Task: structure prediction
Amino acid sequence: MSEHDFLKVALAAKEAAAELAPLPRAPKDAALRAIADALVARSAEIVEANAVDVARARENGTSEYMIDRLGLDAGRIEAIAEAVRQVADLPDPVGEVIRGNTLPNGLELRQLRVPLGVIGIIYEGRPNVTVDAAALCLKSGNATLLRGSSSAYSSNTVLVRVMQDALAGTEVPAGAVQLVPGQTRESVKTLMKARGLVDVLIPRGGASLINSVVEESTVPVIETGVGNCHVYVDAEADLDLALEILLNAKVQRPSVCNAAETFLVHAAVADAFVPRALAALAGAGVTVHGDARIASYGEGLGDTVVPVTEEDFGTEYLSLDIAAAVVDSLEDAVAHIRKYGSAHTDAIVTRSVTASRRFVALVDSAAVAVNASTRFTDGGEFGFGAEIGISTQKLHARGPMGLPELTSTKWVYTGEGHLRTSEGTVIASCPNA
Amino acid sequence: MSEHDFLKVALAAKEAAAELAPLPRAPKDAALRAIADALVARSAEIVEANAVDVARARENGTSEYMIDRLGLDAGRIEAIAEAVRQVADLPDPVGEVIRGNTLPNGLELRQLRVPLGVIGIIYEGRPNVTVDAAALCLKSGNATLLRGSSSAYSSNTVLVRVMQDALAGTEVPAGAVQLVPGQTRESVKTLMKARGLVDVLIPRGGASLINSVVEESTVPVIETGVGNCHVYVDAEADLDLALEILLNAKVQRPSVCNAAETFLVHAAVADAFVPRALAALAGAGVTVHGDARIASYGEGLGDTVVPVTEEDFGTEYLSLDIAAAVVDSLEDAVAHIRKYGSAHTDAIVTRSVTASRRFVALVDSAAVAVNASTRFTDGGEFGFGAEIGISTQKLHARGPMGLPELTSTKWVYTGEGHLRTSEGTVIASCPNA
Result:
């Protein structure tokens, strides 16, 4: 990709964003439905392009698991289209009045939601993200610059072409959905330095992708996705509950960011809880990376318990592994979470209102769960209807991001000749009003 | 400054931030009042330190205007203390429930305001900012790393010491207010790279300071302050009103970011409006940098009208200068504002509801004024009670920033053994609950 090619699509996106931003809901929903219909109508073409990616992946010795994630067939395309229709059914965040009042001087003040502008998405893996991200951005009035994995480049190229063709028959400019041309690392770098052309970058993928974007980008970034989540079993925990929550948080879907990666047990309940937890985790095929106190309960469980390292405590396994430690107090649990966690989701299991208040107040994470699995930190579960990612940063958006998180705001104030003077507001004389 | 010195204060701030974050309002307000009292009680010491800065400035040939801005006396210190007391009187944004509901599965979901953590402020000029910024951050539960102008280093050192001493007798940790040690450019660079120690950087000052922070910082930045504001006089404008608004926006306080720097006049009213505007601006001592059509009305006004350059249109004068052009349509005015503006505040003067709707929808700025002076874009005028700056970026905060803009959010969900399964939520059995 040349810099010139990139500039061409980025400028097209910027121009489209300016046209798209003031559109009300109806033409945006119509455009989304046109995209959904076109995806289904042109399934064969998409499957054909996808076959090129799949064949190349197979040649490169990609695992069957990854190939399955990459693959598209008519059924999966129908599901992608259905998701787009669901986005059309969601309320439009743009234009929402967030705050507003009449000031003492009579100025009418409103704060409105407006689109961010051009959103760059850098993502790995599945080609459905190409359509999901474009649909969510379009609904919230934003143009999209998509930079997917090079392993899905052929699929993504056709998916974007189908979306652009569908938009050409609607009020939404076709330029509102753009694929960053080229598959090299250079194209990511160019995107990250496109300050002034791109308003926000959202990287979606593994920790190394996200870190490199955060470090190198001059475009503002929303960090997503890395989840080193903890389950803390308090001295006052119901241990049956704790066991089920721990198992659910670890085992139900280990590959996702809201799965648990460490559990901490208060020393007062270690004797009663840890042997049961280890047996249950062993039964579920989980390897426990435990500290010395955890290990002391591990006899007779074969190789279920292995020694934990400092690095383990900071690791997002995304696998059937979990780190574990016994702590002497709630405060020690909090200190551990602050030191090693990724500020995604941390849970406490306790019967005590005071302990839960304290844990919620002291744990500085995007989400804190009380007597519930960490797996609920999710835009769908929270009722957002859709999710572009889970922010683990503090600025702009924190936790699951739905459509409102893809907007900025604008202040509007309306007067009738309001002037500011050192003595306060004066209304200009207006003989012809 | 050594890297070691910086790390010491940054770590102290981070530790203090963790202690400060969960505090409720009362101890924070008490701490702010203790700071106000200490500033007044130790006025003499502060004035003495300030005299060192003033003497050095005078030696360096600094203008009397700048020296006046730098100077502190007992009266000014009393005013600074009074501003701190006013911050104590403001409501506490921390803990506010922004959203919340009971999910269909019974999970109780709340989104709470929480402090950002450690806020770095890089600023120029007046030493009162040292206290203002620290007070606003403290009220919103944040620790502050202050990096003021080296011209005020002696004053800032004593102001921070007085604040820390005052905090030592309160529940707020003294480490919550920190001065970045050293006066070199290196100390700014170290602050900008302190990702993980500093949560947000807010640069306050001129365009070059802000641009360098935005370009170089790996810590998330909130851009503030550059204002290239426009007044557009529509074809349907009341021209008396337009004249007063234009004069107020330009002349009432030319040195501030919400002053007007360009006016645009619809061709349909140019004959009627421009001669009056030029005469009035000339009377107020304003130089008009006009395009050819503006210049055609400038005869007989001496050197009031000078030719405008491309650069003028992009300039924040902060002086008795204004750029001006005649445009053929509202859309051309919007295009001009999009091309040259800084997305701070832009005003339309019009009687037409349709024109005002269109201008508000198309102008992508932090604030849009209708029939009012641009000078109202201000936290005080908006009723925020205080302002840390005016954000001209789209992420996190846009426009005047009060206390809520110095916070992030946290999701809290409370269940009774809620587990997520592929078939939906299951409540764990809890025999002992």
About this structure: Chain A has a mean pLDDT of 94. Residues 3-223+393-411 of chain A form a domain with the Aldehyde Dehydrogenase; Chain A, domain 1 fold (CATH 3.40.605.10). The longest strand of chain A covers residues 407-421.
